[in-house]
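Design request, tokens follow.
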């Protein structure tokens, strides 16, 4: 099995402290069901950073879709330009937003893991040894490691779906525009230890050095919703 569909919308960021409980409630009760009810959306998830994660990267959210065009569809854009009152309030308190529409280059997993590691590449000019065609070659051996249940390589498109919508305006209320990624590796696993081992192996193999252009974080999945979960609501 793998990610559902050929495209994902990935988000990282934080929320001001006194809005965090409300944020989680909003995202689970209103936002994810609203998104997954749209044509082409297949699954949504939210994950929270492990203890010690910088507040700038505390949350990781992902929507899987049939294809990239889903994220610029008429019905989706109608939602983006007509946010609910609750959405306006939450997005106004969002900090350090990162949002990119990506193509799925390689993907393999057993179900959906409880823990995630994300390796983000922010540079626009990626060295050959770090491009997605090279990185995806490590997928077969990575998913064989103890405690690893999946790995995905995605390629960002910084020209796609970057319209100035109402939601985008509210998301920048704290003075920060959306950060874009060039590409990313997503690893799923049973626990932090397994993920750390996998990430360390990739860092060694590709000489990856964490800096302001290569960001590595670890998360625990909080909530996942699929189209089937909405049946009967």
């Amino acid at each position: 099995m793998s990610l559902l569909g050929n495209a994902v919308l990935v988000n990282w960021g934080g929320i001001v402290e006194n809005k965090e409980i409300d944020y989680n409630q909003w995202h689970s009760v209103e936002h994810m069901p609203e998104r997954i009810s749209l044509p082409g959306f297949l699954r949504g998830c939210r994950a929270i950073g492990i203890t010690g994660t910088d507040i700038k990267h505390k949350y990781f959210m992902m929507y899987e879709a049939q294809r990239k065009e889903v994220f610029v569809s008429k019905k989706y854009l109608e939602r983006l330009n007509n946010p609910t009152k609750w959405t306006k309030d939450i997005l106004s308190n969002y900090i350090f937003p990162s949002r990119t529409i990506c193509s799925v280059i390689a993907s393999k997993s057993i179900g959906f893991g409880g823990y995630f590691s994300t390796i983000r590449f922010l540079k626009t000019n990626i060295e050959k040894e770090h491009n997605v065609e090279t990185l995806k070659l490590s997928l077969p051996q990575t998913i064989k490691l103890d405690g690893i249940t999946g790995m995905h390589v995605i390629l960002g498109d910084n020209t796609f779906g970057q319209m100035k919508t109402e939601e985008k305006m509210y998301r920048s209320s704290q003075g920060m525009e959306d950060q874009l990624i060039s590409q990313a590796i997503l690893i799923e696993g049973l626990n932090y230890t397994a993920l750390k081992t996998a990430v360390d192996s990739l860092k060694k193999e590709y000489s990856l050095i964490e800096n302001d252009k290569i960001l590595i974080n670890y998360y625990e999945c909080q909530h996942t919703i699929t189209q089937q979960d909405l049946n009967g609501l």
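Comment from the thread starter after seeing the answer: thanks! The helical segments are 20-36, 74-80, 85-91, 132-135, 139-142, 166-171, 192-206, 227-230.
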